[in-house]
Each structure stands twice: as C-alpha cells, then as structure tokens.
Design goal:
The chain has 243 residues and is mostly helical. It has one domain. Helix content is 66%, strand content 4%. It has 7 helices and 4 strands, in the order ββββααααααα. The protein has a two-stranded antiparallel sheet. A two-stranded antiparallel sheet has the order 2-3. Strand 2 and strand 3 form a beta hairpin.
C-alpha cells in the first residue's frame, strides 16, 4: 500500500506505459502489472514446486499439493463427479484471486481485487459461462430453474420474477462482496497506520492494532478467495443439476 495523504490514494490506477489504439486507452497500468504478477507467481508456484515430484515433498511441493487437494475437494463436495471438467477453471480462479489479495498486503503494492471493474468482470464472465453451460446441457428445460419443481402454478407469477431477479443479481453480489471487503480492509489499515507516526510514543497503541488488523486481513484475503471459488462451484452445480 503506497503512502499518501489520503487512505484512498492507494487505490488510484496509474498509467505505467501510456498507450492508445483507435482512440481507446490501452495503457499498461499498475493494476494490469499486479494481475500479471499474480498469474506469474501462481504459475511459478505450481510449476516449480512439483517439478521434482519427490516422494517426501518439500514445503513448496506440499503447499502446491494442498492447494490442489483443497480445490478438488471443494468441487467434489459441491458439484460431484460431474464437476471434474471444471476443476482447471475453478483452481485458476481461486489462485488468481488469492494471489491478488495477498500481493495487495505488501508495502507499496496495488490490490487489483479492490476495484469493482476487476471483480465484476470476473463475476460477469462466470455468470455468462455457467448460464451457457446450463443452456447447452438442458436446452429449454433451463428455464424451469426459475420455477422449482413442486411449486403450485398459482405461485408462478410471484415466484418467477423473484427467481429471475435473484439469478441476475449473482454477478453483482459475487463481485461486490470481494471488492467491498478488500477496499474496506485496506482503507482501515491505512487510516490506523497514519496514526502511528502522528502520535509519537503513544503510537504504540495504533501500531499494535495495525499489526492485529494485518493478521486479520491476511485471513480475510484467503477467505474471500475461498468464498469466490465456492460460490462459483455452487453456480456450476446449479447449471449442471438445475437446483
């Protein structure tokens, strides 16, 4: 988190390599740079840690294997055997969000998951993808999702609009949850960190709070990646089983 007079200054997108094509701004920004860093670091962890495939894994290989098993079990528990083809996507999504959250905890870094444009793009892609999966798998039967089996037909005029609104709100709730948690946590950290030098010796109290809050933010960074991934699994389960 970069130092600045405002707690929100850390979220400002900066053009590192200005560029424009056909009147469209395609500059390489700090946000894009940290997205690339998240992809590179996550890829390096998985590739380098399992390259030797030792019978007795070292700490890095163990971390990679635990990450693999964690997502595999999550997908199996929520979707079942039919979820196996979607493991690469869910695993990639989890690692991307996780590394994005963790990179944002480093001093002078940038948290791209604290921007709604990023989280909503991810959520919108997931929403469109699972909807297409459901339509290709079930055809017109997909629309029965909005009127659960066993519901009296007289309830349809009331229930169907509610179900449609609930379904269409998925990308909003999915994206806002991640964005809001990362934005609020980092802002709070910046505010209390600003009290430390201002209070001098008495700054030991806000310093202790900042230390505790940093630990909490690390936990939240993992939890938000987990929530993002497990909700994606649930959406895939709905697409495959229509319930």
């Amino acid at each position: 988190m970069a130092e600045g007079s405002s707690p929100l200054e850390q979220f400002v997108i900066q053009r590192w390599v200005p560029a424009e094509i056909g009147g469209v701004d395609v500059s390489f920004t700090n946000s894009a740079a940290f997205m690339v860093a998240a992809v590179v670091l996550a890829s390096a962890l998985m590739i380098l840690s399992v390259r030797q495939r030792a019978m007795v894994p070292n700490r890095w290989q163990l971390l990679a294997e635990l990450s693999y098993s964690f997502i595999a079990k999550m997908l199996s528990d929520t979707v079942g055997k039919e979820g196996r083809p979607y493991f690469p996507f869910v695993f990639t999504l989890f690692m991307f969000v996780l590394f994005g959250n963790f990179l944002g905890m480093l001093p002078y870094s940038f948290t791209f998951t604290s921007h709604l444009a990023v989280t909503f793009t991810l959520a919108a892609f997931i929403f469109i993808a699972v909807t297409l999966i459901a339509i290709f798998k079930h055809g017109m039967k997909f629309f029965s999702f909005f009127l659960p089996h066993g519901v009296p037909i007289a309830m349809a005029p009331l229930l169907i609009p509610i179900e449609i609104i609930s379904y269409l709100s998925r990308p909003i709730s999915l994206s806002v949850r991640l964005f809001a948690n990362m934005l609020a946590g980092h802002t709070l950290l910046k505010v209390f960190a600003g009290f430390v030098p201002a209070l001098g010796v008495a700054g030991i109290l806000p310093l202790a709070f900042v230390s505790a809050l940093t630990g909490l933010e690390i936990v939240i960074a993992f939890l938000q990646a987990y929530v993002f991934a497990i909700l994606t699994c649930l959406y895939i389960n709905d697409a495959l089983h229509l319930h």
